[in-house]
Amino acid sequence: MKGVILAAGKGTRLMPLTKVIPKILLPIYDKPMIYYSLELLKELGVNDILVVVSDTNKEMIRDQLGFGEEFGVKITYEIQKVQDGSGGAFKVSREFLNGEGCALLFADNIFIGRNLNKIKNVVEMNMKEGYSTIFAYTVQDARRFGVLEIDKNDVVVSFEEKPENPKSNLISTGLFFYDNTIFDKVDKIKMSSRGEYEMAEVNAMYLSEEKLKAVVMDNEVKWYDAGTFDALLDASCDVRDFN
């Protein structure tokens, strides 16, 4: 299976750092942020990876990563020319995927832990059963995230973006495994009130088909949305302690 890393964001929450360097090249302890994305996908068995970049950050990212030799993967690049959301960024992967399913990872999502081989097995089983997979994590305050409810078989039964009164403390991370119907759904996305095409709408389509399962991270894995200064610091400290 191929992988797509979305790395074209402006990183506005991390200004003024991101005026100097793209968000995904900011350090998490001893490595640039995107190194963790590449290492995660490789550990999950994904070795052919598209990195979606912007016009402004493409040269710095390409200079840093090359074409993947250092990581034992193959890296291809595409440019998101218009900043029109995660769905818009994903659309530029059409030619690369060529009708295949994929792993999708938001580049500012950091996973730290030892439990990833078990996760890989669960994803493979879901695919065999016809399910796409959303990676989930338990937090204390779910109001800032996409909130999930799942049944006893880990099938997602509800998904709500940033609810004032969350139905659970289980939230969607930025890692997904989609089947080969992904572009049938992406092509149906409508622009949101924020003026963006959003992958959350794709998840809603899988949900309506009852074809979306969750893999819930256990306490052996920590997850960070590394788009804030506090998250950068906390993730760096955890990487240091984990090593």
Layout of strands and helices, then pairs:
Blueprint: E1 2-6, H1 17-20, E2 27-28, E3 31-32, H2 33-43, E4 48-53, H3 58-65, E5 74-79, H4 85-91, H5 94-97, E6 102-106, E7 109-113, H6 116-128, E8 132-138, E9 146-150, E10 156-161, E11 170-178, H7 182-186, H8 199-208, E12 212-216, E13 221-225, H9 229-242
Parallel strand pairs: 1-4, 1-6, 4-5, 8-12
Antiparallel strand pairs: 2-3, 6-11, 7-13, 8-11, 9-10, 9-11
Which features would summarize this protein structure in a list?
alpha/beta; Spore Coat Polysaccharide Biosynthesis Protein SpsA, Chain A; two-stranded antiparallel ribbon; 9 helices; globular
Describe the fold and architecture.
The chain has about 240 residues and is of the alpha/beta class. The protein has helices at about 15-20, 35-45, 60-65, 85-90, 95, 115-130, 180-185, 200-210, 230-240; strands at about 1-5, 25-30, 30, 50-55, 75-80, 100-105, 110-115, 130-140, 145-150, 155-160, 170-180, 210-215, 220-225. The protein has one domain (about 1-240): Spore Coat Polysaccharide Biosynthesis Protein SpsA, Chain A (Alpha-Beta Complex), CATH 3.90.550. Helices cover about 30% and strands about 30% of the residues. The strands form three sheets. Strands 1, 4, 5, 6, 8, 9, 10, 11 and 12 form a nine-stranded mixed beta sheet that branches. A two-stranded antiparallel sheet has the order 2-3. A two-stranded antiparallel ribbon has the order 7-13. Helix 3 (about 60-65) links the parallel strand 4 and strand 5. The protein is globular, with a radius of gyration of 17 Å.
